[in-house]
């Protein structure tokens, strides 16, 4: 027993067992401690022998065994690896390749290695601040050798390459394997560090990060000359280093590099021939245009041919060449100054091709737009055609930047909890990519088109305002709030205008929105904004950065129906613009009344879905159940069975005595709104009135969640489950969908305001879910939205639609009109993998489906995670790659057929006036289409018809022609 105890003690000592995750505040302290330690995250130098043993630094591995020497990790470093899956200062040389690839954790360890390298470059070594001088901790030759072995192992699988092309190619920039320096990264890092230490350098740093070119060398030299007396010796050393690296980076391209690399490929092989062709050109005779176009084409060939290259070492060489070509294009792009409109389109195409070839866009995505972006060498082009080119080109910038966020967002978010500098990593990757050069060129085209169309965005004092794009018409006045980071927990105000990286999925009312990532056109947030006339626009990451200096300022913000955008400071508003927000105007705004005169509260037993139809909406139940019942009669094989809990059952329960109150739940609710009106009659500020209401409604909400369900209702519900699902309550997973009489009114959609309980199976959870759904109209978010737009928000009655879960492979929304082109004949669809993604505002795969022409990809999906619905209930998260589309052609054809059927038969089955457009939620499971909801697609008619908004977007002659040889100002 003594021996066993001693052995157990030794195991615990040598291999500590950690059971609790380390908190972010603790990790923050550890990071600071490591910065101050000579050995940082490392314990000591040891020999790591090939037989798996470790020896002291003075006791080398025997020659017959072999091994390498480097640092070992501190126990605390190992604890972070085991408990938090955090890998600081990873030494590659003795890391298992599969562990480092970390496929089961979305390649987190590899991404962390890259993020660590970034932090070290911008924060004086970060946790390695002092440990970077710890001699022998890392052996560069061992790291290089491991890197080569790792990529040779990784590239053995074509599936890995196809699914992770962008990540693999990006990792080549950070994992040692070729001895090449990343000069562009050094330039950005050094300029960032210098600007943080000397605020006078900030303008230069902004130029170097935003619009880098070789003139930056002179910029830095001038800064040194003009500020020499104020610069410390240490700062001067960094500025000299920056100048030196810039000169190396912007040195003339040595095309001999490609001749040397060509020798690594078999004779007469395709890539060798292409490399020799480029390398044999005279560097002084090749123009910037020809160099960029040839480099872009060669990058394309490399990506296309990579799976067919015979050896992994040749594949690795090809990828390194691709990186070199990207670098050449990046630094040469400013030297290509198009002299004509045609040449501008040529440049956009070449940069788009190169960006896609770099993996910023998936290959199938590029194939959707390649032929549309290629310049047609005609004599002239119309404004309409030119705008389509601009939209396509702008999409390539947006898709490219969203790829970086999608791949690295999870790791950056993880690190941001304890290291704020991590948030700069994504921006750094975007700025170092060809998306930056493409964005510059697209903005120039946008400025040209707006000038020719006599249109112009007026965005404060910003440049390149053509990268702003209006989504929903409307106008607002309020404080501008710029939100860079995660917005999900942000408390918003209805008085403010918000600029988001991406809006929260449960956004409360705001005055106006602008987003870098629009999510998708048919998310609940977008539908609410469109419905309620909230101005909404998309902008670039650089635009968001530029707007930060106006954060906290009061501004006027307007978006026209044609997408024209105005943002101006309060003191620049015209009298007409001020009049839009006069108190009298606010008082006279048209509010909507929830119709209650036809409501039937006598129906106090559950119904089958087949017992309701469109005529039941607002009477017995809400429009979700009523319209789905209508669809069930029209498409019986595509709609599940369902149980409807009508308004009357909710109202019956609200008549019960409310605990700790004098009367019933209903009496408490009505007195809440009566007290609010009494407060208003005494001129109490609306904010105080609303706070009082919210306090009372919060108490009501909690009380409803704990209400005792009547036994006769539970028995009745049990029969409904048996009749429709052939099981008792708890025998099958179901969705509980709130279905109120306030939804889908003529001018108010209420999309996504109330609760849906996802895939719940346990009996107790289903019964509690019913109470939670009943309570959801009284939550703060739901109340605030409807309070602004409804005259009688107290008369909201929730019914509940209960349907069995369908574990769809992908799901989404169809709008029976073209939103992006305002064409009533087209369709707009947005789909995400798994259940419920597109409506929650995810970056979904969106299409404009054309019955008479070519379908157009509006945006690809950029969500790495999605929901599946297990039979046991609840949600499970799965991950996905982006290398294939979500919808196949058969799916799109079936969606078109469905839309035609709905357009024809729904007015016949309901009311002749019900002509659409419609908002339909649907999904596919094993390629079978399932319908989950149909509702009117509501847009704000006041915003679309506003005289002011029409005045800021004058009519454009879309058929006006411009000569493609039209000379551009250089």
Automatic annotation (TrEMBL):
Q: Which UniProt keywords apply?
A: ATP-binding, Kinase, Magnesium, Metal-binding, Nucleotide-binding, Signal, Transferase
Q: Where is the Pyruvate phosphate dikinase AMP/ATP-binding domain?
A: 696-946
Q: Which InterPro entries match?
A: PEP_synth, PPDK_AMP/ATP-bd
The superkingdom of the source organism is Bacteria
Signal sequence bounds: 1-19
Pfam families, alphabetized: PPDK_N
Q: Which cofactor does it need?
A: Mg(2+)
Q: Which family does it belong to?
A: Belongs to the PEP-utilizing enzyme family.
Q: What is the name listed in the Swiss-Prot or TrEMBL entry for this protein?
A: Phosphoenolpyruvate synthase
What organism is recorded for this protein? Mesonia aestuariivivens
């Amino acid at each position: 027993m003594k021996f066993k105890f001693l052995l157990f003690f030794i195991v615990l000592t040598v291999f500590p067992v950690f059971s609790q995750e380390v908190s972010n505040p603790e990790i923050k302290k550890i990071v600071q401690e490591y910065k101050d330690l000579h050995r940082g995250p490392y314990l000591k130098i040891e020999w790591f022998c090939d037989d798996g043993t470790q020896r002291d630094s003075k006791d080398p591995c025997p020659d017959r065994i072999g091994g390498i020497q480097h640092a070992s990790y501190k126990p605390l470093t190992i604890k972070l690896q085991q408990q938090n899956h955090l890998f600081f200062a990873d030494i590659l040389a003795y890391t298992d390749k599969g562990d480092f690839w970390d496929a089961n954790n979305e390649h987190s360890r590899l991404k962390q290695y890259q993020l660590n390298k970034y932090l070290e470059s911008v924060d004086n070594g970060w946790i390695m601040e002092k440990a970077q001088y710890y001699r022998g901790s890392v052996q560069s030759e061992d790291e290089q050798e491991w890197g080569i072995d790792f990529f040779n192992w990784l590239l053995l699988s074509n599936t890995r390459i196809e699914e992770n092309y962008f990540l693999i190619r990006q990792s080549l920039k950070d994992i040692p394997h070729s001895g090449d320096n990343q000069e562009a990264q050094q330039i950005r890092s050094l300029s960032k560090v210098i600007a943080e230490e000397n605020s006078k350098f900030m303008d230069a740093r902004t130029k170097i990060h935003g619009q880098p070119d070789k003139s930056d060398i002179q910029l830095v030299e001038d800064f040194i000359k003009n500020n020499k007396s104020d610069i410390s010796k240490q700062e001067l050393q960094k500025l000299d280093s920056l100048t030196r690296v810039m000169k190396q980076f912007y040195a003339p391209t040595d095309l001999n590099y490609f001749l040397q690399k060509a020798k690594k490929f078999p004779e007469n092989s395709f890539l060798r021939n292409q490399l020799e062709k480029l390398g044999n050109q005279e560097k002084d005779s090749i123009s910037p245009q020809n160099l960029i176009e040839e480099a872009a084409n060669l990058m394309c060939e490399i990506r296309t041919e990579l799976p067919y290259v015979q050896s992994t070492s040749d594949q690795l060489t090809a990828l390194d060449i691709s990186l070199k070509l990207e670098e050449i294009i990046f630094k040469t792009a400013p030297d290509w100054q198009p002299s004509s409109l045609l040449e501008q389109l040529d440049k956009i195409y070449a940069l788009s091709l190169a960006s896609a070839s770099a993996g910023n866009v998936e290959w199938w995505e590029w194939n959707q737009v390649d032929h549309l972006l290629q310049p047609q060498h005609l004599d002239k082009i119309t404004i309409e055609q030119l705008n389509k080119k601009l939209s396509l080109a702008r999409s390539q910038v947006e898709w490219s930047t969203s790829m970086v966020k999608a791949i690295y967002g999870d790791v950056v978010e993880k690190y941001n909890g304890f290291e704020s500098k991590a948030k700069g990593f994504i921006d750094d990757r975007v700025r170092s990519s060809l998306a930056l050069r493409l964005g510059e060129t697209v903005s120039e085209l946008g400025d040209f088109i707006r000038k020719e169309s006599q249109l112009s965005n007026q965005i404060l004092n910003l440049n390149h305002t053509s990268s702003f794009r209006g989504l929903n018409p409307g106008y607002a006045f309020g404080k501008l709030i710029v939100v860079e980071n995660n917005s999900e927990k942000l408390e918003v105000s209805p008085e403010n205008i918000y600029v988001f990286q991406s809006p929260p999925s449960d956004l409360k009312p705001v005055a106006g929105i602008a987003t870098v990532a629009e999510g998708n056109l048919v998310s609940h947030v977008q539908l609410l904004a469109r419905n309620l006339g909230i101005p909404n626009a998309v902008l670039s990451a650089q635009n968001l950065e530029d707007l930060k200096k106006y954060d906290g300022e009061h501004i006027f913000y307007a978006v026209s129906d044609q997408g024209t955008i105005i943002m101006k400071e309060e003191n620049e508003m015209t009298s007409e613009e001020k009049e839009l927000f006069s108190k009298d105007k606010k008082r006279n705004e048209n509010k909507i009344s929830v119709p209650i005169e036809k409501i039937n509260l006598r129906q106090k037993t559950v119904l089958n879905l087949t017992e309701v139809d469109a005529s039941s909406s607002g009477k017995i139940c809400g429009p979700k159940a009523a319209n789905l019942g209508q669809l069930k009669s029209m498409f019986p094989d595509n709609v599940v069975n369902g149980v409807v809990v009508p308004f009357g059952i909710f109202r019956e329960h609200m008549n019960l005595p409310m605990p700790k109150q004098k009367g019933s739940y209903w009496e408490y609710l009505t007195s809440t709104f009566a007290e609010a009106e009494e407060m208003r009659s005494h001129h109490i500020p609306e904010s105080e009135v609303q706070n009082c209401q919210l306090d009372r409604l919060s108490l009501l909400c909690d009380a409803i969640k704990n209400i005792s369900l009547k036994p006769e209702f539970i028995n009745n519900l049990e029969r409904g489950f048996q009749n429709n699902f052939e099981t008792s309550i708890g025998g099958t997973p179901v969705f509980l969908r709130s279905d109120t009489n306030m939804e889908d009114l003529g001018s108010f959609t209420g999309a996504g305001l109330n609760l849906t309980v996802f895939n719940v199976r346990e009996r107790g959870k289903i019964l509690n879910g019913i109470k939670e759904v009943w309570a959801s109209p009284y939550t703060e978010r739901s109340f605030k939205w409807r309070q602004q737009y409804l005259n009688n928000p107290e008369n909201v009655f929730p019914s509940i639609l209960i349907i069995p879960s369908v574990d769809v492979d992908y799901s989404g929304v169809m709008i029976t009109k073209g939103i992006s082109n305002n064409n009533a004949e087209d369709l707009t669809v947005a789909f995400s993998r798994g259940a419920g993604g597109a409506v929650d505002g995810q970056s979904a795969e969106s299409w404009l489906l054309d019955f008479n022409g070519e379908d157009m990809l509006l945006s690809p999906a950029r969500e790495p995670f999605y929901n599946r619905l297990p039979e046991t209930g609840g949600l499970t998260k799965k991950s996905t790659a982006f290398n294939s589309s979500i919808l196949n052609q058969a799916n799109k054809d079936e969606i078109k057929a469905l839309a035609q059927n709905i357009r024809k038969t729904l007015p016949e089955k309901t009311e002749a006036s019900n002509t659409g457009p419609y908002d339909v939620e649907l999904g596919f499971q094993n390629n079978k289409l399932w319908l989950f909801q149909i509702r009117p697609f509501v847009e704000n008619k006041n915003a679309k018809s506003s005289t002011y908004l029409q005045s800021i977007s004058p009519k454009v002659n879309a058929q006006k022609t411009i000569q493609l040889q039209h000379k551009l100002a250089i």
